[in-house]
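thread: overnight batch results

M.L. [08:02]
morning all. the overnight job finished for the chain we discussed friday. pasting input first so we're all looking at the same thing
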Amino acid sequence: FFSPSAVPFAAGLDVDFRDYLPFDTPRDAQVALDALRPTALVFAKLDVWPVLVTAASQRGVRLGMVSATLRAGSTRRSAAAGTLLRDAYARLDVVGAVDPSDADRLVALGVRPDAITVTGDTRYDQVWARAAAADRTSDVLAPLRSYRPTLVAGSTWPSDEEPLLRAWGRLHAILPDARLIIAPHEPTAAHVSAIEGWATGQRLLAARIGSPAAQDADVVIVDRMGVLGDLYALADAAYVGGGFHDAGLHSVLEPAAFGAPVLFGPRHHQSRDATLLISAGGGAAAPDAAGLERMMLSWLRDESARYQAGARARALVRSGLGAARRAYDLIARLI
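M.L. [08:03]
and the structure it wrote out:
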């Protein structure tokens, strides 16, 4: 992995070794290959390290990519990116694409047609397994179990919270029993304090997760990393952050796997999963605070509407299962 946000996930994997990828320089690539002496080098999603790929290929290391995807509007389809990356993609021995359109775009980027096959997205298996393993009697979830209509808002940014909290303030006046569990993407002291200040101004009881007051709070603030994936088990409906800025929408599959209908902001078009959720009737995008309030009210007040949308969200995740096995079979060909 390369992003610091992947550290908690990597720490939970049953593997012999985990660490950051080296910088893509000739020296760092040679040092990494000398230390690890891999039989195969397999990337996930899209990014390849061209220097590392070339060095590994020259050593006879087999190369692959799984859950491979490339958006129609990706900058990697530009002429400059193609010049830089085409040789690296052409060196891949096997590639498992998420869907046929991804496969076509990856071939145009340089992947050999005989190397590519459609295997699906392994994240569907991942989130399904996590949902199935969620322990509602755990120290995290048990104190928060409630019959109150609950929205779990995950990976929120200030750009999400401005319309979301404004909408929630109005919603709470209509549904005073409703509860918000909110997990900021960056739970810094200042970020958490700002949400607490908003709750105080709304005369809502706010508490941080793990505190004695959290069980009865109107607003539960998650001030730690690594628990959001399980907290979606408590959601009657979910909000996923990232749709009110340009950095990208976070994972809508995690709450969907629990059967929660998923709400997000208007900037979701780079997310294949969000588009599929909307088409399936298991998710919705809202352009502003009024739209958020309308959808949250619909799901939290109408049990039938909430159940139907949640069932469609979960069915979408179920339809993507099996990609992990297909990716495993693909990688096994390299070893």
